[in-house]
Each structure stands twice: as structure tokens, then as C-alpha cells.
Amino acid sequence: MKLSGGWQVVEFYLGRIRRLNPVLKGVIKVNPDALYLDDKADHERKVKAPISFSRLHGIPVLVKDNIATKDKMNTTAGSFALLGSDVPRDAGVVAKLKKAGAIILGKASLSEWSGFRGAPPGWSARGGQGVNPYDSATTTCGSSSGSAISAAANFATVTLGTETDGSILCPSSFNSLVGIKPTVGLTSRAGVVPISPRQDTVGPICRTVSDAAYVLDVIVGIDKNDIATIETSKYIPKGGYAQFLRRDGLKGNELGLKEGAILIDHLEIGNIDEIYNDSSETTTLLSEFKIALNKYLSELVTSPVRSLADVIDFNNKNSKVEEIKEYGQELFLTAEATNGFGKKEKAALANLARQTRNGFKKLMIKYKLDALVATIDLRVYKILAIGGFPGITVPAGYVQKMPFGIFFGGLKGYEPKLIEIAYAFEQATKIRKPPSLKSLQPKKN
């Protein structure tokens, strides 16, 4: 879909959300100023030369509800505990979107606390249970479920999600979408309700590779509120990412297909079983979550909760609310019991570094690969997560009516190659089809 804004486009999306969101539950909150912002963008286009606008000017964007917006909407990570809190500023990526003229249409639903509470994928106390628009009986995957539901159901032109381990790539695959999980630090995490600064990243979830590349061009770059962006900005190519939207992008690239064949056959990550069965990632995430969340909550202008302990207490006191009572908070309790980074956590970090060095990184360098190719069932997103590596998923087909995607993963800064390959694959196959949504349409008299 070609990016274009204005001309009642916001009204169109608001209409779809009103009709379909009561069932799909992909959106938690619509921006009450959306129509005003649309009119403002239309006026700007009438009085200024088109060349002065970015590709995202006037484009409605839904952002995951763990991404802060300094406006009339709450940022709650799907939890009632943060309802009424006041963020100090827009998240870094939101500030960049607004500077480019994009319209923040609303907040997409998610797995509560980005899946770290332990509830089912796509469920939050505020948003309810998100529904896959292709098949209500199939998972949305998590935790950027609402961003994926909304992109698939055409609730916005593009959406933003976040990923710690699979939360962009998995829901994009299950909803027949393009999702880009950027190199950690390529996009700012400032103003994002955190799990792990070591693994968290923000990226686009869209219907096409080109849309995703245009969004990535806008949201990457240095943000003084996230120091990781300073070092990682070295990976941003001069001229941006849209230049790599090449139909011949597969030519000359060395691809390795895990447990299959494209150009280099039967590649194996030597320590794959160790990575999948080891608890080191969980050990580190539990400590990182407590530290990072406490810092985030302490910096809010106003908030009903100021620490993970406060969140746990809130849930206990509100356990009579059915939505809160239904799902426990075992991960919260386990995280709260941690006490910073001791010997166990440091050993776990060392394990993750060793697994990355001796596994995925070694494979990519040994075979001089431009990308590793895999499907969702191989859980490549875990390998990318622990190393901070980028990945992109593209619609690849359907099993009956359920979508599945193909993943391309690379080393840090490999986004240009991944976009080039993914776009060429997309253009060669053109396999994506929208969900029918017929059962969700209002009945005619």
C-alpha cells in the first residue's frame, strides 16, 4: 500500500476501528485529537510545497501501548495500574514520528506488560483478549499483538511494536505482515515501558516491506535520552533504508536456510539446543525487568505506582476485578525477589554472550552469509533476541486460512541487506492477502 495521508483518511480508519475493534480488540484507545491533527496536516499540504514533507506526513500511525505519548492518551502497557499516570515526554520514536508529520492515531493493545506478566498472548486487563483477524481460534502471538491485529485489519496505515524476544516477528508472521526487529539501539527505547535495555527494541509492523522501510527511516537515529543510540547510529546507511527496496535484491546475496536449502544447504547453529534449553535469558530478564521498570516508573511525572512492588500490590488489591483475578503474576513475584546482578546473573550474561559468539555469529561469519532464513516454528527470534541482532519477517503463505511468514536474520547493522532480500522476496511472491473479516461486518437488513 502506498503511503498517503489526508483526504478523510483518519475518518476512514476511525470508522473501521468503531466497526471491528469491539471484536478484534486491536486498539486500546483512539487519540481524541486525531481528526484535528488530520485537518492540520491537510492544511499544511495546501500551503506548503509537497517536496518539504516526509513520506509519513499526515500518515495515521498506531503505537503499542507501552510507547509513551505526551497527549490526552494514557501509556499503560495494558495495565490498570498505570491508568492516570503522566509521562514526562513523548517516547523518542514518537517524537521522531511527530517531527515527520505523522498522526498518532491511537494506542494498540498488547500482551499486558509486554507479555512479562505471564498472561496469554494478546491479553491485557485494559484491552481484553486480542483476536487474530484471520482466524479467531488461532493465537495472535505476542506481545505486539494489537499492533499486528490493527495492521492486518487496516486500522491504520502503519503501526509500531516492540520486541524483547519475538514480540514483533512472531505476531507479524501470524497476521500476514511485515515486521522489522531492528538492531538493539538503532531505535530509541526512551519512553518505552521496559523489560530489558539489553534486548528491547522498537520497530514497524506494516503490510508491505516498503512501508516498513519508510517508517524505519523516520524512527532510527540518536536520542539523547537513550545513550545506546549514539553508538548504534553508525549502522544507519547514508541515504536511509528506502534505497534498498530493490526488486533484484536476492541476486548476489548469500542465504542460509536453517534445516532447508536456498543457496547454502543444511546449515546448523552448533549450539542451538543449548540456546533453546538454557535458562540464562530468563535469569537475566528477571533482574533487568525489575531494575528497568523501577527506573521508568520513578521518572513518571505522576503515577499510581512507582515500583514493581507497587504494581504487585495494586494487582493484589484489585484481585476482585475479574480481568485481573483471572491471570496471576508469578513472573512479577519472581522478578521482585531478585536483587540486582549477582554471580548467577553475571554467569547468565556470560552464557548468552558465549552462545551468541559460538552460535549465530560464528555461522554468519564462517559462511559469509547476508542472512539466515527460517520459519516461525524454528524460533529464530530467540537467537536474534539474545544477541541484539536484527530480523525481518515477510508473508510467505497460508496453511488453510492461517498465515505464516519467512524470517531473514542478520548481524548487527544488517538491516539494508535484510530489507533488500525481503523486498525482493515480497515482490517475487506477492502472496499476502488481507483477512476477509466478513463475519465481523455489520449485518445488512
From TrEMBL:
<dbReference type="Pfam" id="PF01425">
    <property type="entry name" value="Amidase"/>
</dbReference>
<dbReference type="InterPro" id="IPR036928">
    <property type="entry name" value="AS_sf"/>
</dbReference>
<dbReference type="InterPro" id="IPR023631">
    <property type="entry name" value="Amidase_dom"/>
</dbReference>
<feature type="domain" description="Amidase">
    <location>
        <begin position="9"/>
        <end position="228"/>
    </location>
</feature>
<protein>
    <submittedName>
        <fullName>Putative amidase</fullName>
    </submittedName>
</protein>
